């Protein structure tokens, strides 16, 4: 995994602040509109407030979800939080979910170099060592993360790093 250097975390915070500012400006416009217009219905505040709460609630749920979910799929959480929250009409979230389902293959650690690799790989793409682990007793294909063979219970030898 190449470490991404782009500060998505900062970008996310900046975008969030900008959006907060935008909401503030919209609220201010609303207040001024209601002052200047005596026929401005008071329930407009309520509607606007509820809408605002729904949007903020939804965005926090999405952000929290991605923050916890993205690392499990080897995805950069802050970058995806930016995309899911700020691409309009939840399109970003949709893109995230599509790419995520693509990435859902279980990741295992290569015992030779320690990189995360897909479980279905037979050879580690980082160090070229074999990932084709088999139980030494019964020959069942086992994951390098497992401590014992699920079929016969023999302990794997992989505890030696
Ligand atoms: Zn490796
Ligand atoms: Zn076995």
From TrEMBL:
Keyword field: Membrane, Transmembrane, Transmembrane helix
Species of provenance: Oceanirhabdus seepicola
Pfam families xref list: DZR
Protein name as annotated: Zinc-ribbon domain-containing protein
InterPro entries hit by this protein: DZR
Residue intervals of the DZANK-type domain: 110-153
Transmembrane in keyword set: yes
Keyword ATP-binding: no
TM stretches of this protein: 12-33, 45-66, 78-99
């Amino acid at each position: 995994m190449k470490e991404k250097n782009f500060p998505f975390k900062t970008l996310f915070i900046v975008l969030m602040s900008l959006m907060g500012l935008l909401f503030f400006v919209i609220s201010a416009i609303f207040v001024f509109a209601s002052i200047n217009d005596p026929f401005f219905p008071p329930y407009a505040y309520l509607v606007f407030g509820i809408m605002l709460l729904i949007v903020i609630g939804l965005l926090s749920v999405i952000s929290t979800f991605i923050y916890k979910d993205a690392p499990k799929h080897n995805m950069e959480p802050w970058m995806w939080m930016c995309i899911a929250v700020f691409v309009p009409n939840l399109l970003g979230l949709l893109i995230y979910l599509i790419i995520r389902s693509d990435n859902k293959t279980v990741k295992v650690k290569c015992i030779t170099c320690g990189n995360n690799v897909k479980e279905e790989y037979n050879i580690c793409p980082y160090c070229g060592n074999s990932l084709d682990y088999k139980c030494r007793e019964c020959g069942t294909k086992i994951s390098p993360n497992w401590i014992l063979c699920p079929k016969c219970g023999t302990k794997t030898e992989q505890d030696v790093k």
